Amino acid sequence: MKTAQFNQQPSHTIHLAFSEDRLQALIAEGKLHAADFNCLDKPSKRTVWSMLLATAARKMS
To answer: What gap in Å lies between CA 28 and CA 42, rounded to an integer?
Structure first.
């Protein structure tokens, strides 16, 4: 079975944008974790931090 060949160059940062709803869904589904990305500004960091706390609270209840 052949697999897709992607850029074989060394890893580099890729800048993406997600809607807040989609990011929340990816975090809630466990498909994206806080260690997987960095926020580029303080408002984004605050929003993501709130999402992570809310997701953790739902899992604990």
So the answer is: 22
